[in-house]
């Protein structure tokens, strides 16, 4: 059943501009994304494959890879995302306070052309969830587009670093923050919002990249006009839910605090003129207070980037009780399933299931667990709903043991890669379970309340992570490379069947795309939670770059020096991170590393 | 090479020990450095009008110290970014059992209450009263009464108030807003932390009936909490000093709580004794 076609994803993105006629002109990214000498989009291309055809570094010579240069970003929190390379400039970003550096690759010693640090409300930091991470920049038409933790959206002159415009996309003092990279489509910068734990109601918003003017905003919960549903929304799959459910699947006014934040990765199909993203967990953490499906939290969305109108939406985890934030990336690939060519969307969800859908209309084709899952036995393909094991459903005041995966998910935001050469997806996964223990006294603003303790633990086998090669046409794991720590960094696949990924314990690794065989590894200064990328230097040599800088939810105990005496801190991350020895494996510190052959 | 290294290690160990114990032993407290919310009445504000402001004064006086406030919202991040980074040394009014800090022996006990305007003559005494299903109920989301409503299938008529707010920027969203709305009549019933409701009755002459909810932790309805002070973990010396002062100033503290209308429950030990007697 393995794919033979080697150019599917590439073909999908070079269709002529005329084919997706409606709306604004295509912009420069349509062609730039195909230039593998550069890396202009957060995920390499609109299909979000993180695949580059560059072929100078091969399985045979990768063992000679060495550090070409490295640079400190000046901050110590987790470094997610990847740098961009446009022309001969690399754009490097950091965690809070979100420094941006333009680095001149054409000059000896790669000097900094400009550095920009946004003016931020320092009080955004106390309320931001998890680690003070940021997942990267966008480039288009001579501009760098970025967001900040305190929810500003900013455009910079890519040549000079001069501010062109900036606007407020949210109010950090109400818990609204921004950590995601967003995506430029045509002349719009589409961005999301974080802050589900503050009751933020999630949305995506499009800003004109030339003026910063808001073009549209679509919410994740609430009345249909706020959701911006197309007249024929979910026409192909009416059982996924239709109009009115943004309020009717909630009790009372709970949809107003409905969560469904949008802090993950976005992708785009120019032929269909649809962009894809997904929403996080429902607000109000006690599921009893929001009986119903809680639409459209935990949902894969397809929207028109020009208008924001939604064509289909598929909710993966109705009435979430585990914090299985549905925000992970959707990778677009044209696959052959049961002899039929399908324009597919592949999504590895926190809930442990890998979904292959028809991206034209959302029809579910394959849904299988890619890690050890026990909260549901399977996904019913007819209804699209999980068949739950009710004994694994968390409930306020009740102890529930051994729920797999844990709240960090079978995989968190760290994005997978797809190689059209092998037809395989390379997925950084977690192997962790949790005990949900009731009744820990908590406190805020003068009032005590009772929350749940979440104890994190290793899944079957004891390893906390695994890099999994996945066949999305059948929903089967082909092979896996076990890792002692959770696989919290993204993946890069190249045109010579080399797959790169980094680990939290500080190894940057190259493995063979066909077998998983380790080809090379290098220990970097701090654990890796970033996404590797590749480009050609001005000298036409192939380079591989990756951020080092441990952090994110699991890395928080190290990046923020949390003491080991409160194992439940950071929502249970502290206990397991110290048990796994992460604090001995690595220390904090943000760097970009660039590798080359001698 | 070995000797200086060992000395260095010893010095480090000593420094660590000192750091862990807060301050050098036997040194009197000159400043009571309080982590205070600038805008969260009835508990505290930067005009020093709250319960905790007054109690801090009493305790500081007892210790021969002066109060120095570090103003920071009592929200997520407070312990990690403010208490543990030594910008201040003590939080007042935290529940006993609050794990991120070392807590003192509790100095009062109170609970969540059900409140409504007296002129409504509702006579609701418990969450199991069926009339609750017909009333507009205001409650802070994720608090114990919010959970208890969920348990009873009461959700459609619930108006949720955020537990998290930033008192630096959105003082109007403070927990007392819930009671203000109750007085104004936009909700019929409020389920709210006792000291908040009590303050409006006692100091703002709000015409409210207040009913303490029956504490039934065994059925997941935990409404009563003991209230302590919290210090950094490891700072048992300050904890000890605070506990001594709290014991010495018991009556004055009770007076302050009374002035603010805090609906007091008997201390946990007393309650146990009563139970035994019965």
Features of this protein?
heterodimer, A: 598 residues, mainly beta, Methanol Dehydrogenase, Chain A, five-stranded mixed sheet, 8 helices, B: 278 residues, alpha/beta, D-Maltodextrin-Binding Protein, domain 2, eight-stranded mixed sheet
Report on the structure:
The complex is a heterodimer of chains A (598) and B (278). With 598 residues, chain A is mainly beta. Chain A has one domain (8-596): Quinoprotein alcohol dehydrogenase-like superfamily (Methanol Dehydrogenase, Chain A). Chain A is 8% helix and 36% strand. Chain A contains eight helices and 38 strands. Chain A has a five-stranded mixed sheet with strand order 1-32-33-34-35, with no helix packed on it. In chain A, a hairpin with a 4-residue loop joins strand 30 (465-471) and strand 31 (476-483). In chain A, helix 6 packs across helix 7. Chain A is globular, with a radius of gyration of 22 Å. Chain B is of the alpha/beta class and 278 residues long. Chain B has two domains: 26-108 and 225-277, Periplasmic binding protein-like II (D-Maltodextrin-Binding Protein, domain 2, 3-Layer(aba) Sandwich), CATH 3.40.190; 111-219, Periplasmic binding protein-like II (D-Maltodextrin-Binding Protein, domain 2, 3-Layer(aba) Sandwich), CATH 3.40.190. In chain B, the strands form three sheets. In chain B, strands 5, 6, 7, 8, 9, 10, 11 and 12 form an eight-stranded mixed sheet that branches. In chain B, strands 1-4 form a two-stranded parallel ribbon. In chain B, helix 2 (51-63) packs antiparallel against helix 8. Chain B is elongated, with a radius of gyration of 21 Å. The chains are: A mainly beta (598), B alpha/beta (278). At the A-B interface, helix 3, strand 28 and strand 29 of A face helix 3, strand 5, helix 4 and strand 9 of B.
């Amino acid at each position: 059943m393995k794919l033979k076609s080697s150019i599917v994803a590439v073909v999908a993105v070079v269709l002529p501009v005329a084919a997706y006629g409606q709306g604004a002109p295509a912009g420069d990214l349509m062609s730039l994304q195909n230039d593998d000498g550069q890396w202009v989009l957060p995920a390499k291309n609109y299909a979000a494959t993180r695949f580059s055809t560059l072929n100078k570094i091969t399985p045979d010579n990768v063992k000679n890879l060495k550090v070409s240069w490295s640079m400190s970003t000046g901050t110590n929190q987790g470094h997610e995302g990847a740098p961009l390379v446009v022309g001969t400039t690399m754009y490097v970003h950091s965690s809070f306070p979100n420094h941006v550096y333009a680095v001149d690759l054409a000059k000896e010693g790669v000097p900094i052309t400009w550095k920009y640090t946004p003016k931020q409300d320092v009080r955004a930091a106390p309320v931001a969830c998890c680690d003070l991470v940021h997942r990267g920049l966008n480039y288009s038409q001579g501009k760098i587009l970025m967001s900040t933790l305190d929810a500003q959206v900013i455009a910079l002159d890519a040549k000079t670093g001069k501010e062109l415009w900036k606007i407020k996309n949210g109010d950090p003092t109400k818990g609204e923050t921004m950590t995601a990279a967003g995506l430029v489509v045509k002349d719009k910068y589409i961005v999301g919002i974080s802050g589900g734990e503050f009751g933020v109601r999630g949305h995506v918003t499009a800003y004109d990249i030339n003026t910063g003017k808001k073009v549209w905003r679509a919410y994740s919960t609430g009345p249909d006009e706020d959701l911006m549903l197309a007249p024929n929304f979910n026409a192909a799959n009416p059982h996924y839910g239709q109009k009115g459910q943004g309020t009717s699947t909630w009790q009372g006014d709970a949809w107003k605090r409905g969560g469904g934040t949008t802090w993950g990765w976005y992708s785009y199909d120019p032929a269909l003129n649809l962009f894809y993203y997904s929403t996080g967990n429902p607000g109000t953490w006690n599921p009893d207070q929001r009986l119903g499906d809680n639409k459209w939290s935990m949902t894969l969305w397809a929207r028109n980037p020009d208008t924001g109108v939604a064509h289909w939406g598929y909710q993966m985890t109705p009435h979430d009780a585990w914090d299985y934030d549905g925000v992970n990336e959707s990778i677009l690939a044209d696959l052959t399933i049961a002899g039929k060519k399908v324009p597919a969307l592949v999504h590895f969800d926190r809930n442990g299931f890998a979904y292959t859908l028809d991206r034209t209309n959302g029809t579910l084709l394959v849904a299988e667990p890619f890690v050890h899952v026990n909260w549901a036995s399977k996904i019913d393909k007819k209804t699209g709903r999980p068949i739950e094991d009710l004994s694994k459903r968390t409930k306020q005041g009740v102890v529930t043991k051994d729920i797999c995966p844990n709240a960090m998910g079978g995989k968190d935001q760290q994005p997978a890669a797809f190689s059209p050469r092998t037809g395989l997806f390379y997925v950084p996964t977690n192997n962790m379970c949790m005990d949900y223990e009731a009744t820990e006294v908590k406190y805020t603003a003068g009032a005590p309340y009772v929350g749940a303790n979440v104890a994190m633990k290793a899944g079957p086998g004891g390893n906390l992570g695994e890099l999994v090669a996945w066949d999305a046409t059948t929903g089967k794991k082909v092979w896996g490379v076990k890792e002692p720590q959770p696989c919290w960094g993204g993946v890069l696949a190249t045109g010579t069947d080399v797959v790169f990924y980094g680990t939290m314990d500080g190894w940057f690794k190259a493995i063979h795309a066909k077998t998983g065989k380790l080809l090379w590894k290098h220990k970097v200064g701090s654990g890796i939670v970033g996404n590797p990328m590749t480009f050609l230097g001005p000298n036409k040599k192939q380079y591989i770059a990756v951020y080092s800088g441990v952090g994110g939810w699991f890395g928080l105990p190290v990046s923020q020096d949390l003491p080991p005496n409160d194992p439940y801190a950071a929502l249970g991350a502290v206990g397991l991170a110290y048990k796994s020895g992460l604090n001995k494996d690595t220390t904090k510190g943000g760097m970009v590393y660039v590798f080359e052959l001698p | 090479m070995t000797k200086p290294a060992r000395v260095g290690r010893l010095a480090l160990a000593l420094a660590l020990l000192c750091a862990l114990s807060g301050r050098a032993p036997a040194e009197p407290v000159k400043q009571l450095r309080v982590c205070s919310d600038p805008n969260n009445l009835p508990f505290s504000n930067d005009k020093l009008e709250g319960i905790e402001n007054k109690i801090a004064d009493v305790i500081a006086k007892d210790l021969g110290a002066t109060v120095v406030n570090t103003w920071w919202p009592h929200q997520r991040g407070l312990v990690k970014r403010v208490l543990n980074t030594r910008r201040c040394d003590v939080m007042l009014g935290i529940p006993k059992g609050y794990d991120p800090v070392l807590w003192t022996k509790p100095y009062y006990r109170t609970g969540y209450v059900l409140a409504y305007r007296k002129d409504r003559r509702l006579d609701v005494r418990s969450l199991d009263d069926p009339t609750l299903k017909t009333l507009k109920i205001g409650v802070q989301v994720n608090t114990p009464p919010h959970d208890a409503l969920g348990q009873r299938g009461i959700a459609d008529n619930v108006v949720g108030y955020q537990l998290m707010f930033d008192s630096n920027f959105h003082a109007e969203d403070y927990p007392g807003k819930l009671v203000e709305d109750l007085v104004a009549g936009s909700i019929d019933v409020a389920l709210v932390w006792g000291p908040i409701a009590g303050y409006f009755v006692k100091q703002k002459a709000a015409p409210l009936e207040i009913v303490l909810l029956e504490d039934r932790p065994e059925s997941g309805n935990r409404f009563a909490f003991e209230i302590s002070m919290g210090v950094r973990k490891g700072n048992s010396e300050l904890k000890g000093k605070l506990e001594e002062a709290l014991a010495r100033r018991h009556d004055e503290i009770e007076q302050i709580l009374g002035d603010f209308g805090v609906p007091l429950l008997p201390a946990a030990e007393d309650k146990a004794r009563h139970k035994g007697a019965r």
